[in-house]
């Protein structure tokens, strides 16, 4: 090696040391040439082999191309790993920071998609989830708004307050839709009595009052609820007003009155029955 060749060689060494990506680029070019040559040799030898049928030969050639491409990409990753690992780690850290910072928003979007696909409720439906209970007045991809009902657990009156519920809550909590039967529902009203009260008279009064209340819409309720249950393959519930006694303690019981109701008039129905019950109790 003459003096000029030594100088060129040393300059190349210094150049590759100063710019490490040049060595990676050179290794990539050499690997590419070797893979192209090797793949062509294998395909040529396979094509000239008479022991393979045409279909088997075509399948083998496809496999050679697939695996050679896969191995070439894997080799490129190994060659360039040291150069790109800093960038890759930075990208992972950036993405992780974004996910952590917007975790709740992402969950709200996923919850919104879940609601859009499954359609567990519609506008105007009365729902209950965790400590929220009310009528749905607005829904979008990140949240829903409800007109609050309460504040008592069994109250059917709206408070006038509007609550915004993040859609993420629907991914982890069970929700209850009380308006699933096409504008009608089956509602249970509870009345606490003393153990010494005349249950027969109270039950008879409540049953008669309930039949009076539902008289104007009972047929329409039976039709709508019946159609819904048939479409969903469910057993049609009994809609005639009926009562049930639940023992609280040795001194008190609860009479449960179950009746079909119009969801839009539920608060009016509740007040009508409760006021009639209070007037009846005073006179016995």
Quick recap:
With 284 residues, the protein is of the alpha+beta class.
Walkthrough of the structure:
This protein is an alpha+beta fold. The chain has three domains: 3-101, no CATH class; 118-177, SH3 type barrels, CATH 2.30.30; 184-282, Alpha-Beta Plaits (2-Layer Sandwich). The protein is 55% helix and 21% strand. The protein contains seven helices and eight strands, in the order ααααββββββααββα. The protein has helices at residues 3-18, 20-47, 54-101, 103-118, 199-214, 218-232, 266-282, and strands at residues 126-129, 132-139, 143-149, 158-166, 175-177, 184-194, 242-247, 252-262. The strands form two sheets. The chain has a five-stranded antiparallel sheet. Strands 6-8-7 form a three-stranded antiparallel sheet. Strand 1 (126-129) and strand 2 (132-139) form a beta hairpin. Helix 2 runs antiparallel to helix 3 (54-101). The radius of gyration is 38 Å and the shape is elongated. The mean pLDDT is 79.
Give the SSE string: HHHHEEEEEEHHEEH
- Indicate the mean pLDDT: 79
Task: Provide the β-strand percentage band.
Answer: 15-25%
Radius of gyration equals 38 Å
Q: Helical stretch count?
A: 7
- The neighbouring-strand order within the major sheet is 4-3-2-1-5
* Proportion in helices: 40-55%
The span between the termini is 124 Å
Oligomer: single chain
Total strands: 8
Sheet having the most strands: 5 strands, antiparallel
> Structural class, judged by helices and strands?
alpha+beta
Give the overall shape, derived from the CA principal axes: elongated
Count of separate structural domains = 3
């Amino acid at each position: 090696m003459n003096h000029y060749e030594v100088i060129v060689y040393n300059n190349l060494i210094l150049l590759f040391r100063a710019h490490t990506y040049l060595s990676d680029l050179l290794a990539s070019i050499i690997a590419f040439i070797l893979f192209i040559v090797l793949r062509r040799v294998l395909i040529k030898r396979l094509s000239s082999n008479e022991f393979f049928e045409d279909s088997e030969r075509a399948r083998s050639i496809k496999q050679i191309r697939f695996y050679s491409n896969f191995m070439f990409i894997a080799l490129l990753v190994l060659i360039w790993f040291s150069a790109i690992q800093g960038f890759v780690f930075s990208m992972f850290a950036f993405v992780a920071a974004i996910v952590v910072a917007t975790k709740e928003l992402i969950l709200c979007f996923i919850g919104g998609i879940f609601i859009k696909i499954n359609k567990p409720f519609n506008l105007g439906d009365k729902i209950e989830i965790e400590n929220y209970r009310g009528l749905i007045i607005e829904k979008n991809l990140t949240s829903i708004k409800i007109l609050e009902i309460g504040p008592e657990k069994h109250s059917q009156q709206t408070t006038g307050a509007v609550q915004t519920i993040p859609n993420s809550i629907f991914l982890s909590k069970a929700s209850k839709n009380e308006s699933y039967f096409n504008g009608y529902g089956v509602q249970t009203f509870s009345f606490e009595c003393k153990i010494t009260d005349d249950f027969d008279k109270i039950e008879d009064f409540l049953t008669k009052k309930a039949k009076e209340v539902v008289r104007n819409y009972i047929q329409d309720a039976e039709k709508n609820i019946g159609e819904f249950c048939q479409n969903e393959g469910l057993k049609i519930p009994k809609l005639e007003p009926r009562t049930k006694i639940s023992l609280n303690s040795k001194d008190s019981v609860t009479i449960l009155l179950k009746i079909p109701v119009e969801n839009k008039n539920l608060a009016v129905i509740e007040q009508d029955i409760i006021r009639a019950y209070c007037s009846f109790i005073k006179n016995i």
